[in-house]
Amino acid sequence: MLRLHFYVGLFVGPFLLVAAVTGLAYTVTPQLEQLVHHQELTVPIRDQRVDLQRQVTAAAAAVPGGTITEIRPQSTPDGTTRVSFDAPGVRDGYTRTAFVDPYTGEVRGVLDTFGEWLPVRAWFDELHRTLMLGDVGRVYSELAASWLGVLALSGLALWCVRRRNRLRVRRTLLPQGSARGLIRLRSWHGSVGLWAAIGMLFLSATGLTWSQFAGNNVSDLREALNWSTPSVSQALSGGIADHGSSVTDPAQMAGTADRVLTAARAAGLSDPVAITPGDGEAWVVKQVQRS
Which pTM does this prediction carry? Predict the structure, then answer.
């Protein structure tokens, strides 16, 4: 058990260090985004806004050859409208997003984004998940997260072996302040490891749900248990689908987006919202507040 704990620690240790540092850095990425991408995210507040149709049209002109995949109208008085496109040359999983001043219709900038994440947050997320090593880093991260549970459980097993008298239990629960050298180091290792074991098991279990292989199994389990996120039907009845707007015509789509947003507001959806165009299907408007 001691050998297992030792070698698993050598394997998992680098992952724990990188995951802790990058995870901590990730928590401040919203503030970093505001600093790095201030130009794209904020605008001077004015009295009058231009309609959504004009904003989408301006965004489409800034991303030639792109197909609109999502529209996020301005959600704060000093915020911009985001229009995302499936465009040539964009990485798999990413979209090209134009940021439009809702008061003037001016495009403030164009960035490649990962969902709602801007390049800064996407970079930290990639570092946290793959260590910037692609599939190799992702597989290592998943293996390390899997063996993190073994590390915690083997440490607890070693602690149980030492429960032969009350004195050792006390020394394991709390570090020995009077000890020196290697004994002091092992005392701190055992005590901190004991208290951190529950957190390690929790981190291992929750982290694996986002991983490549175990995450797919979790998704299959959720689907089998009917735990999937509910979704509205986009089916259209009659001949409505034949008269919908074309997803390849920005001007026609921009006009439809304006009407769709008006209908969503009437239905009670408040900011922030995301509009997803439908190609021969109903458009979808959903609230995207994650607090």
Answer: 0.76
